Prior knowledge:
This protein has 169 residues and is of the alpha+beta class. It is 30% helix and 30% strand.
Amino acid sequence: MGLLRLLAKLKFISETRRLELYPPFYKMRARILEASNGWRQIRIRLPLTAFSSNLSGDMFGGWQAALADPIAALSCARVFPGYSVWTRAMNIIFEKPGSTDLELRFAMSPEQEHSIAAELKTNGRATPTFEYGFYLADGSLCSRISNTVAIRPRGYAKTNAVQLDLNKL
């Protein structure tokens, strides 16, 4: 049994603590500050450490990307159970150097939730884009994230997908 499946079965540990124990988040020392309103609002602290610092002593962008990547999909999986959910695309704009611990702030608005629900009802799938960010200790925006999530029926397989044969390259 894989570590992730084992963690999922440990019901005596809170869902937020299980996420903190997820191996990449555990090594980053990420701490869930808030996961409220059914995972529609999420705040996570990403500490600036010797391991997360780049050569100039600021937060390495890869750490920000690794933490930001699954958050919108995680929220959608909780709000829209029964669907397969994954990150389809993500863009990060680094506004300022990450010179302090960072706080990721994500929120799904009621309007966005209703729009996604309507699209799922009409099309059976949705591909929403969420805007959120990392904030410095003084509350100013450090990095702006745009994350597009694919919400598909379980077992979804795109029938006209292009197959790449690596042996022919």
